[in-house]
Amino acid sequence: MTAPCFLVIPLDARPVCHSAVVDLARLTGVQVFLPPADLLGKLKTPADLPAIRQWMERILRQHPIQAAIVSLDLLSYGGLIPSRIGEESNEDLIRELEKGLAILKDVPKLYGFSSILRVPTYNNSEEEPDYWAEWGEVLSRFSQNLHKKNILMQNWRSLEWQEEHPPKEIIKDFVIRRERNHWHNLRLLQLLQQKRLAHLVFCEDDRGEYGLNVYEADTLRARVETLELTDFAHVQTGADEVAHTLLIRALEESLQDSLSVFVKSAQSLHVVAKFDGQPLKHVIYQRIKATASKSTLKLEDADVVLILHAPHYRMGDHGEGSQADTTMNDAYETLALTTEVVAQGKAVVLVDVAYANGADPLLLKAIKDEPDVLPQLAGYAAWNTPGNSVGSGLAMGLGYVYAQKYNVGSGSRHRKTLATRLLDDGVYQSHVRHIWRLSQRPLNQVHLTDALLRHGQWILNTLGLGNKRIDARFPCDRTFECAIEFLR
After folding, report:
1. Per CATH, the architecture of 258-408 is what?
2. Spans of all domains in the chain
3. CA angle, corner 486, sides to 383 and 410, nearest 5?
4. Does domain 5-252 have CATH number 3.30.70?
5. For 91-145, what is each residue's pLDDT tens digit?
6. How many CB atoms lie within 10 A of CB 58?
7. What span, in angstroms and rounded, lies between the C-alpha atoms of 57 and 68?
8. Could you read off the pLDDT of 10-57 as tens digits, one per residue?
């Protein structure tokens, strides 16, 4: 197989959006080009759009790009977080977007994704407008009440407040931002109608049961159906993993080869996923659709088997310190199921969604006790939201199968990708990060690397990477995420 050649414009420079996509491409044998991370901004600092456009022009001159996977948030706003805080007008956004799309006009297939502005439920302005530090919880309830009472956003003044509310200028700013974001997404549907995009994904970032973001997502979903575009667009929860799933979609459509996925869980598929606001089974099938793969009800027909480690009724969250209702028996049952399917010669992806924001420590203990299955996994994920984990884990498993089927990629790349996810999702997110926050230690790169190796050397040893050196750092100068790199 001649390796497909893709260009990717990610949401931003965070490792899960940038280096993890590079890892996935290497695993599948795809030749992929992403802008240098230093052009993509950091948190509230937007990307350098003129420099990125220059980079795109150079890549397109030098390489035969077959498909592009593009964050339309980045081309328009400069990134995911800038889309929440910027002051651009509608005209400014479209002008920037059209500059980027003009450069990509001759790319055979363009896969785009765009976020629906989220409504966090807490007082924290790290990724939101400054007033979210004081009024975030109140604005979230305001958003939910408008939706529950079926009051259109432009009629917000008719809502009777039951609590102290923000100054009217803050409410107006909140509403204006939402209207701008929704207008932008409707404009993207027009691009799809004009066949300037091959596929379009609308991302519900941090969804609950109610809220203006839920209403807007339903509106977009209905619009897609009315325009008879359901084969070319869909709405799903999650955002950070969408470049992963669209890369696999581009690969499947480039090769004209769609793989089948079988889903199995030792626990419940009906638990409502934190930050996805819907049952786990819906989250999974959204991701299968996103990759353009097919679900199957027969294990023997599957190219990839997705095994879900889930709670019975209650999902935990390492971010807030809440516990999942899993037991050690559940962990061993998940591992036994994984071992059984691996023994049947199937490519198995193990996705741990017992907790949001990291792995289930009980499942990690079970794997450490019985490590033989680890090198045989096609994929693993347990990070951030359940949708993030399912989407990236499934993409990794599908990519692994393509690498095997077309004899591309390498075993070393696969083991390093597995190790990175286990060290990050498992060791860091569910253990080291908590210790770091409690101790309030400074963000020291050497100490972080030492901590990961102290608690995770067994992972490297199990995967035959015990002699490899790693380097870890805090790329966004905060403890929420870390970057892990294998040194040559």
Report:
1. 3-Layer(aba) Sandwich (3.40)
2. 5-252, 258-408
3. 90
4. no
5. 999 999 999 999 999 999 999 999 999 999 999 999 999 999 999 999 999 999 9
6. 11
7. 13
8. 999 999 999 999 999 999 999 999 999 999 999 999 999 999 999 999
Do 258-408 and 5-252 fall under one CATH topology?
A: yes
